[in-house]
Amino acid sequence: MPAPERVPPGPVTTAPAEPAPAGSVTALLTEGELTVRGRIPEASNAVLHCTVAGQGRTAACVYKPVAGEQPLWDFPDGTLAQREVAAYEVCAALGWELIPPTVLREGPYGPGMVQLWIEQAEEEPGEPAAPAADEDAPGPVPVGPLLALADAERPAPEGWRAIGPAEVPGGSTALLVHADDPRLRRLAVLDAVINNSDRKGGHLLTTADGRLHGIDHGVTFHTEDKLRTLLWGWAGEPLPEESVAALGRLAAALGEDAPLTTRLAALITPAEVTALRDRVAALLASGTHPVPGGEWPAIPWPPV
């Protein structure tokens, strides 16, 4: 995650946190004392870098107060924090640890989303350059974790999946590609399930121990098809067996009186829960990765 800048302390919290299992990471995030250390300057909404401490434990985390959310034309005001928590709940029900532990709680600037901080292994990429187009050209040029630029005049190199053309400095065009990676493929399935309308390259975080995390899930769970992502490399292809099994677990967990459904009911609307069930059922019925619908931009801007 980007380095934060300093911000002044806010007012004292006035409401208790929701209960969570004792000793767990979510318990620490929910019940610990939250201290603001800085602000992530690149974010469009208020994103604060914090520490949370309790019972002899301390962890770095991100706090996104509802009061710092910018209004959107297609999502109700003040709901992005809840959607981030709902995305974490659904990811956990799939059995995948792709989204860092995320909770909804009071903080120094009022209620908001608090998420475990993920330390990125890779350095921030520099200014991208177009790859050479001759026979002796090197491989794809990295532009972020699991993303690269390749020769636009050739098919995606082995081990990579094509996203689409990308303009690079100098007025030339390269092929933007993502890795043909099973971790990334799970994330593509998750995005289809939660109807993620903003999967950018900067939302992919890899750690030194080889784990992949996706962050920034505030614009999700819309009842209309708004899937907008970089991860179209498997569009139309059969879902892996492990993804089908995970979707089956999620479908079972979304029963009318199931605990997951009860938790989601406090975070998103009944119509959005129904649409979530419908998307899971459609994925299981088709057995394939979705393809762009054509009524909504398929790739977010900026993509990386």
Class of secondary structure makeup: alpha+beta
How many angstroms separate the termini?
14 Å
The average pLDDT score comes to 85
Shape: globular
Identify low-pLDDT runs.
1-20, 124-130
Q: What does this entry look like structurally?
A:
The protein is of the alpha+beta class and 304 residues long. The protein has helices at residues 25-31, 80-94, 182-194, 241-253, 259-265, 270-286; strands spanning 33-39, 48-54, 57-65, 102-107, 110-116, 141-144, 147-151, 160-168, 172-179, 204-206, 212-214. The strands form three sheets. Strands 1-2-3-5-4 form a five-stranded antiparallel β-sheet, sandwiched between helices. A four-stranded antiparallel β-sheet has the order 6-7-9-8, with no helix packed on it. The chain is globular. The two termini are 14 Å apart.
Brief write-up:
Residues 12-21 have a biased composition (Low complexity). InterPro entries: CHP03843 (IPR022292). It is built from six helices and eleven strands.
Topology:
Layout: H1 25-31, E1 33-39, E2 48-54, E3 57-65, H2 80-94, E4 102-107, E5 110-116, E6 141-144, E7 147-151, E8 160-168, E9 172-179, H3 182-194, E10 204-206, E11 212-214, H4 241-253, H5 259-265, H6 270-286
Antiparallel strand pairs: 1-2, 2-3, 3-5, 4-5, 6-7, 7-9, 8-9, 10-11
Helix pairs in contact: 4-6
Organism: Streptomyces odorifer
Region (Disordered): 1-21
Biased composition (Pro residues): 1-11
Key features of this structure:
304 residues; alpha+beta; Phosphorylase Kinase, domain 1; five-stranded antiparallel sheet; four-stranded antiparallel sheet; 22% strand; disordered N terminus; CHP03843; SCO1664 family protein
